[in-house]
Amino acid sequence: MDNIQLSGKIKKIKLVILDVDGVLTDGRIIYDSKGRDSKFFDVHDGLGVYLLGQAGIKTILLTAKGSGTLKHRAKDMRVEEIYADAVPKTSALDKIVKKYSVSDIEICFVGDDLVDLSVMKRVGLPIAVANACDEVKEIAAYVTKKQGGRGAVREAAELILKSQGKWEIALKIFNK
Amino acid sequence: MDNIQLSGKIKKIKLVILDVDGVLTDGRIIYDSKGRDSKFFDVHDGLGVYLLGQAGIKTILLTAKGSGTLKHRAKDMRVEEIYADAVPKTSALDKIVKKYSVSDIEICFVGDDLVDLSVMKRVGLPIAVANACDEVKEIAAYVTKKQGGRGAVREAAELILKSQGKWEIALKIFNK
Amino acid sequence: MDNIQLSGKIKKIKLVILDVDGVLTDGRIIYDSKGRDSKFFDVHDGLGVYLLGQAGIKTILLTAKGSGTLKHRAKDMRVEEIYADAVPKTSALDKIVKKYSVSDIEICFVGDDLVDLSVMKRVGLPIAVANACDEVKEIAAYVTKKQGGRGAVREAAELILKSQGKWEIALKIFNK
Amino acid sequence: MDNIQLSGKIKKIKLVILDVDGVLTDGRIIYDSKGRDSKFFDVHDGLGVYLLGQAGIKTILLTAKGSGTLKHRAKDMRVEEIYADAVPKTSALDKIVKKYSVSDIEICFVGDDLVDLSVMKRVGLPIAVANACDEVKEIAAYVTKKQGGRGAVREAAELILKSQGKWEIALKIFNK
């Protein structure tokens, strides 16, 4: 895909949907001896979601897993909503399209693994993180340079805001 | 070992046995001030074990250490069984061979350290992870490109499924 | 900026202010299933802050986030004071300048992200960590080779102490 | 130092003393919101200490910090003894020399930071980990290729056992 084609896709984006494990995290799950799990998130990604929100683009989390650890991070990141235990993910996508009155072509989805394929084939801007599996990278319109959980979501947010000419406006709040 | 020889070994595999520390984890153990330990697992590896199961290949965990933290992760990964505190590991291998009615040659074992040597010398497909010690790599039929706890088990699962012609079938569930 | 110019700026430094996430940590936040967060700090950085203190240079932490996890680490590192929930950060800078009777030009600030820009534009020695975003690196007088949470603060401390001719004195305590 | 000189030093070693943070760990300390700290240890290092023990070489931990988190890991690794809160470290070294009836020249010490300098100058085999600060590397007889907390101690153990001709004997237990 050339840059003009990519830029055209990005300009249409009104909503961002993020997979969680491997995208907002680096794919690792910490288990302790009592069976509780913990996950790594990245503070730079959090600012990316915040900047999207400032520019009027909502962020939604979509995962095939549960929302236990996730809901706390989601609250701190001020994401719009979480769709957890979503199997297949396309059912949740149908609900999102209806609820937020957007069409597939206006959605950016960031994914990393096979379970993301069905959604990525439908949305207007499918993005794969650097650590995504080959099948996911192949159908992505853009592959991030940064790893999931290490800035990939921030990179995606900046890509969208810059292509839409909203980056400078978003930055203004930091230059007061 | 050439590719044809390796492919021949893989085609016979009916059961996968995984060491835990250094294979399903990156070898790190987190200790807190109360002595509780935690370990890092990888969500991509989990999907690898799931895909093996879909193709009729069971996965068993075999560790010389205890099963405290492990049993919770094992449940989430839907592995068949855990053999913990297994010293020497070959005794557990004897039990597995009997219980699952498989022969050594039909077993793949993934290991990383000296304690895995005795089992690796017996099974049909001994795999070493990228971070394995030299002695383990030397007797392995295949050394993964990915590190333990960072996709090595997923890589092993894909290797087996692709060589056995089961990869495309496994992928079908993600393309509905 | 050439080395003489940089050296001139460093010689004036009497106080060091550190951002926290991404500077004293690698930017990752661990969430567990109960919503508690943990962060990674680096023992080498701790010794850097200690050496600054031995040379009469106080260290202050300045973050836009809360001080929950931070206050425990700060105590162990013997930093002078924490300014948490500081939005915008320049308001806290005003308080610090007044309380410690220093001028902007006598302050070193180490930052990594957009929220640090306003403070970095004011202080005499703005330092960016290796993992800082581009906008922060561009206005920094010095960019550390080490990553935040992996020695960047230690590197900054050594830079200041060596330029001020205080490094050898600081080392004396380890050669008894 | 040439290999013959190094080999001569290693052959004399009867006791190994390890610094903890940055040597048995990667130098990171995890703080949670309640102020509890956790640390990363490496399972491969644990086997290194075990192999030293099998060959009659005891391992002692020596840290300027407290023993909270450490004592649990030390127990699992079967180290001989912990000297915590040891400032300066040479005082603890004096006690160790007396208690274990060894001379300085028969001791290997593995360190990473400035607080280790005084001990490293005295012992027969001072080893620096790959992530040690420059001052420590400069006075080391050997610098490990592996990082602290990621196999550096295992590498040091193998170096000693191989130079002393005890490696093959140690391996025998894994080839039964």
Structure, explained:
The structure is a homotetramer of 176-residue chains. Chain A has 176 residues and is an alpha/beta fold. Chain A has one domain: HAD superfamily/HAD-like (Rossmann fold). Chain A has eight helices and eight strands; from the N terminus they run αβββαβαβαβαβαβαα. Chain A has a six-stranded parallel sheet with strand order 5-4-1-6-7-8. The first copy, chain A, has a two-stranded antiparallel ribbon with strand order 2-3. In chain A, α6 links the parallel β7 and β8. The radius of gyration of chain A is 15 Å and the shape is globular. The mean pLDDT of chain A is 95. At the A-B interface, β2 of A face β3, α2 and α3 of B. β2 of chain B pairs antiparallel with β3 of chain D.
- Give the strand tally of chain A: 8
CATH architecture of chain A: 3-Layer(aba) Sandwich
Largest interface: A-B, 21 and 23 residues
CATH superfamily of chain A: HAD superfamily/HAD-like
Strand and helix order of chain A: HEEEHEHEHEHEHEHH
Structural class of chain A: alpha/beta
Tell me the major beta sheet of chain A: 6 strands, parallel
Helix content, binned percent of chain A: 40-55%
- If you compute it from the alpha carbons, what radius of gyration of chain A comes out, rounded to the nearest whole angstrom? 15 Å
- End-to-end Cα distance of chain A, whole Å, is 39 Å
Instruction: Report the total helices of chain A.
Output: 8
Shape of chain A: globular
Instruction: Give average pLDDT of chain A, whole number.
Output: 95
What is the CATH class name of chain A?
Alpha Beta
Major beta sheet, strand line-up of chain A: 5-4-1-6-7-8
- What are the segments of chain A in which pLDDT stays under 50 over at least 5 consecutive residues? none
